[in-house]
Amino acid sequence: MKKILQVQNLEKIYGNKGNLTNALNRVNFDVSEGEFVGIMGASGSGKTTLLNCISTIDTATAGSISIEGLDITALKSNQLAEFRCHKLGFIFQDYNLLDTLTAFENIALALTISGCKPREVEGKVHEVSERLGISEVLNKYPVQMSGGQRQRVASARALVTDPALVLADEPTGALDSKSARALLESFRTMVKDMNSTILMVTHDPFSASYTDRILFIRDGKLFTELIRGGDSRKAFFDKIMEVMMVLGGEAA
Amino acid sequence: MSSFSLALRNVRRSIKEYGIYFLTVSLGIALFYVFNSIDSQKAMMDLSEQQMQAISALNKIMSYLTVFISAIFGFLILYANAFLVRRRKKELGIYMTLGMKKGRISHILILETTFVGLFSLVMGLIAGIFASQGLSLLTAKLFGASIKRFSFVFSSTAAGKAVIYFGVAFLVVMLFNTVNISRQKLLNLIYANRKNEAFKAPNIALSFVLFLVSVVLVGFAYHIILKDGMMNSQSFIRAIILGVIGSFLFFFSLSGFFLTVVSRMKGIYFKNLNLFVLKQINSRINTAYISMTLVCLMLFIGISSISVGSSMSAANKESLKALTPYDATLRLGGDKVTNTNFDILMAMKEKGTDISQIAKDYVSYDIYQAPSGIPLSGLGDNVKINELSPDMMRLSDYNALMKMQGEPELSLNENEFAICSNVSMKGWKENLTRFLADGNSSFTNNGMTIHPKKGLHLLTESTDTDTSLGGLSLIVPDAFVEGCEKTDLVLSMNFVNPEGEAAAGKLLDIMTIGENGKTNSSKDSIYDSLIAGEGTLDTAYATRTQVIETTNITSTAIAYLTLYVGIVFLLTCASVLAIAQLSEASDNQERYRLLSKLGASKKQIASSVFRQIFIYFAIPLVLAAAHSVIAIKSMSDIVSAMGDMDVLAMSLVTGVLMIGIYGGYFLITYFTAKRMAVTAQR
Questions:
Q1: Model's pTM, two decimal places?
Q2: Quick one: which of B1, B269, B641, B650 has the fewest CB in 10 Å?
Q3: Chain B partners of A88 at a C-beta cutoff of 8 Å?
């Protein structure tokens, strides 16, 4: 399996000399192509910092992050934007769709930023929309859509550039359980049919149970790893709950 | 921390946000000072009595205008302040959660306003005092006066006025802020950032139709004004109403129209951030179109004022000379002189003044009442040429006048006449030319009928030196005036010594009677015999020096008034746009952060900011410029009646002011907005 993401000895230290906080402490892990990986942890565990470092929004203090073999910690500011639009797709908790654009335009924007040829835009948008079942809402504005539809439009936006890695930050956080389930199902479709690679941060065990593998983070360190293997989703969910009990227990 | 130091720190820290505010208020105060200090500039100039009075009168007009101008500035300061407070809502909310009382917050805001106000007042006054020295030189030049001695002039009246008017404006701002704060709820302050304007989807088809309608309306308004000019008040008002409605619809529908067109051009629409920029503008125009229209109309007034003002300011000396062919003209009318065999030259001689002592050459002639002629088409309702009171004169007198000017003489057959007029108003010449070409045009007197001389066009020489700078003469064969009523006696002359005031003075001594027939103590008056007895007497005496001086004063006054109003309007528009765009940019920070996450480069974001702000600044300007070109074209016909417009000076002054003020504000806005958009982004 091709390695998409390699994180080695990642450290992130906030603050100055007198007052240091070790947000990430020697984190190591890999993500392979076509994998759906979850990151779980309590608030303040460092999971958002990890995601920010991988998404190039924040800088690491030490260690390296390689995406498709390229060490992004060594990239310069003007290369980062280029990198983000070609290699990464983002899905946020609060959708972050532009309210002035229709669903179609929101998806198309990701393409136009990356310098896609104008005449290829429409075809690509329609293709990804069909897969995610949002063809009907393409001409609607975000305010005219339900939360679930908005998040699927955001997913389409993340996927349309065919990124190496999709980063999802609490994507189900603002959704009701039915929409959340539908979204997670479409994530599975993305992994299965389009061979996408997704890294999802969540604190919700139900969402996590849709992934292939879960990394648990506590106090900036990789606490444990849970692999689904051949388990059913229910069995995997139970395992996740067990780990969370241990995590919570030790924390308390 | 005391309120005082907190307020001082706030101002210092947000100096960049206050930048536009500082600049606008300072410029306003500087302008205010400059144009109110005209009176005190008299000190350094060598001025005639007439010019002294003119400056005082100008100063008085300025002080009335100032009330209006300060109302505009008051509005502007309130507008800018509202923007600043809105940006700081969250900060104020934090003060409140920390337990600060509303009274103390108001206190801090009042102190901040005071600091900003004092600072911009000082800066504005300093700039104004220096600029007013430059204006003094300009005034001297425009008046044709010489500078006695250069002294640094400070007008305490103007400075005092600036302090009072702007002080009041700042008091209003303080009051406004206090009321505003006391009515705010903490919840709204804390969540100020999250409140979004409800987004309405645009109605593309409607805006497409409305845009076409707006173009037709504006085009129709242009057509009316170009065809009928500004003198026809009915069509003028109609054109203005059409123009205003057209402009309104234009801004209402423009972005929708543009969007419809561009979204069909996929190659452009799906390139870079184009679709984002277009939608961004379209989403705001729904709320911004009213202010855009107002800005456009104010810009239009501003540009037209500055253009006309600057073209007036350079009153053309050459054209003035052509309009004042003799050193002086004396004109007497009324039945006291016309019903008698009074003769100016004889009367002078009787009193011991021979004309040859004063004038090296002269022509003394009579003006007669013209008989009724056929109507002149196009000059109102059937106006006949004799109703325009032309100076009907004998051919021999006309030729004597032309000879004195060194112009070729004219010959007429006994049944021919010619018309001479130096008025260059639109339609005037055309109508007279048409009248001359009409085979029916004729005058009949005493059994004699005269027709226009075949093949002779309208003559445009000036026949006398007159303050009104315009005349209409009917030149007829000598025999034709037999039996016509005499209306005026005219004496045109060139002084023995054209530069010397002595000769003119002598003549003025003779002219010792006022317009209302008031007597004078001088017994030597040639009018002694005229004063007694019944009847009317009108006198008019104009020298070339006087005419040029009056014209310069008039054009300077018009130039200053229009420049003052023009610059203030320009400044207002530029700063309103700047403030609106900066407020927009701060609202858009979240959107730009998202674009950056999606991989948009800083360059892409900066160019998107540039295009948005450029479009907002350019579109009202383009429409206003189009309006102005039409208005100036139409106005030039009126203005050129007072002397030719100086197109070079006009474009130069207008261009420099536009680029300086409007361009400057645009750049400041762009750089500030760009900084907002790309801050905190990697």
A1: 0.79
A2: B1
A3: 599
Domain assignment present for residue B365? The answer is yes
- Asked if the Cβ–Cβ distance from B598 to A144 is below 8 Å, we say no
Would you call A98 and B597 a contact, using CB atoms and an 8 Å cutoff?
Answer: no
What mean pLDDT do residues B155-181 have? 87
Cβ–Cβ under 8 Å, residues B513 and B519: yes
Least confident interval from A201-210, A213-222, B374-383, B458-467: B374-383
B191 phi, psi to nearest 5 deg = -95, 20
Domain extents for chain A?
3-251
Q: What is the pLDDT of residue B670?
A: 93
Q: Please indicate whether, in this complex, the C-beta atoms of B279 and A82 are within 8 angstroms of each other.
A: no
Cα(A201)–Cα(B497) distance, integer angstroms = 100
Q: Which CATH homologous superfamily contains domain A3-251?
A: P-loop containing nucleotide triphosphate hydrolases (3.40.50.300)
How many C-beta neighbours within 10 Å does residue B235 have?
Answer: 16
pLDDT at residue B18 in the model: 75
Number of domains in chain B: 2
Q: Which ipTM score applies to this complex? A: 0.84
Domain boundary, last residue among B144, B175, B195:
B195
Contact (CB, 8 A) for A8 and A64: yes
Enter the tokens of residue A156.
């389409």
Q: Which residues on chain B are in Cβ contact (under 8 Å) with A159?
A: none
Chain A CB within 8 Å of residue B583 CB: no
Give the residue from B519, B545, B571 where a domain finishes.
B545
Determine the residue among B264, B271, B275 to mutate to test chain A binding: the one whose Cβ has the most chain A Cβ atoms within 10 Å: B275
Locate A240 and state its tokens: 């996740």
Residues of chain B contacting residue A141, judged by C-beta atoms under 8 Å apart: 199, 201
The Cα diameter of chain B in Å comes to 104
Instruction: Flag if B597 and A90 touch (Cβ within 8 Å).
Output: yes
**Do the Cβ atoms of B89 and B192 come closer than 8 Å?**
yes
d(CA A150, CA A167): 17
pLDDT in tens, B393-410: 999 999 999 999 888 888
Strands B448-452 and B416-421: parallel
In a domain, B498, yes or no: yes
Higher pLDDT, A125 or B6: A125
- Shared domain for B350 and B498, answered yes or no, is yes
What the block records as the tokens of B395 is 């051919």
Count CB-CB contacts under 10 A for residue B134: 10
* Residue for token pair 């608030």: A43
pLDDT digits (tens, 9 = 90+) for A34-75: 999 999 988 888 888 898 899 888 888 889 999 998 898 888
For A130, residues 6+ apart whose C-beta sits below 8 A from its C-beta are none
